[in-house]
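Work Package 4 report. The design task specified in the project plan requires that, given a folded chain encoded as structure tokens, an amino acid be chosen for each position. We show below one input record used in the internal validation round.
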């Protein structure tokens, strides 16, 4: 009798689970087709790491135009001042702090300073990143450590510094800038791919932890394919209609849209996520053939001069 009761209860739970799955899939499909309401971020205190140049710089400029108070962190003081001045001349609010995000003590010290001078950070965008673009055996031990420290460990330090106030106020948003290299390994980017896979795992686990706490703090993970930031001087793609090179301005716009829509994970361009997910269902060789076919950022015979001419000219 007990076994029949348990079977009945399990059947009901399974039916409820499947109903929820169908509902969520339909809902998310509709939301991805129809325009999704964007939240207002005016008045929010938005801290962006690695904001002296590239995507971080554009994020700071565009977010300031939306009425947010922007806090810029980087190790390049000269460029920080330039971006802050540009935002101020545009009528925005910006503050800058030189911070080494690989140092937990420096992150904590600057976090306290930001709270004193600007206010509690309500939106954190972990954007700082570096890329070496070298085959495995040409990577130095120090270079590998630096990549992991900047691209991954820094996320832990900043999140631990700002999450407590977000949870206290039950309000906040954390954005982790990963990469499509965090979903599929990229040639000559082994340390970079490893660090970005770590970011995806970190953000997914953090989101689940917050969900179980019934916290209103949101998370968004961004996985750009290739953005023309200067890391790759001549990024290569044979199929630009399918796998385009994205400008920093457009990348920043799409990241801000994902933030305001409170999307969970977004690739740039968005459509790439479907092919990446589908590729995991196929034999690995299919993915390899696809990458060879598109010639996407492939460097034949390790001819890095195609992609990094100034380094090879030294």
């Amino acid at each position: 009798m007990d076994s029949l009761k348990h079977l009945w209860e399990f059947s009901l739970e399974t039916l409820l689970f499947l109903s929820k799955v169908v509902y969520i899939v339909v809902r998310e499909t509709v939301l991805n087709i129809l325009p999704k309401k964007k939240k207002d971020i005016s008045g929010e205190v938005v801290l962006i790491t690695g904001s002296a140049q590239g995507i971080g710089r554009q994020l700071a400029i565009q977010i300031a135009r939306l009425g947010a108070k922007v806090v810029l962190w980087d190790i390049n003081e000269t460029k920080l001042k330039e971006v802050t001045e540009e935002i101020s001349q545009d009528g925005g609010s910006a503050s800058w702090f030189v911070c080494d995000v690989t140092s937990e003590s420096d992150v904590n010290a600057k976090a306290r300073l930001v709270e004193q001078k600007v206010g509690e950070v309500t939106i954190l965008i972990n954007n700082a990143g570096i890329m070496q673009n070298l085959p495995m055996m040409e990577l130095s031990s120090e270079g590998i450590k630096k990549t992991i420290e900047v691209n991954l460990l820094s996320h832990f330090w900043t999140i631990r510094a700002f999450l407590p106030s977000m949870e206290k106020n039950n309000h906040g948003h954390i954005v982790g800038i990963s990469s499509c290299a965090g979903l599929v390994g990229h040639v000559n980017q082994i340390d970079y791919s490893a660090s970005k896979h770590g970011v995806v795992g970190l953000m997914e686990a953090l989101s689940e932890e917050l969900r179980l706490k019934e916290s209103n703090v949101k998370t968004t993970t961004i996985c750009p394919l290739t953005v023309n930031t200067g890391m790759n001087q001549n990024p290569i793609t044979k199929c630009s209609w399918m796998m385009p090179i994205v400008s920093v301005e457009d990348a920043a716009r799409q990241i801000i849209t994902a933030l305001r829509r409170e999307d969970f994970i977004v690739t740039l361009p968005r459509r790439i996520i479907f092919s990446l997910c589908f590729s995991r269902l196929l034999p690995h060789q299919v993915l390899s053939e696809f990458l060879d076919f598109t010639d996407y950022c492939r460097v034949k015979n390790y001819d890095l001069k195609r992609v990094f001419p100034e380094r090879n000219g030294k």
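The chain has a mean pLDDT of 86. Validation will be extended to a larger panel in the next phase.
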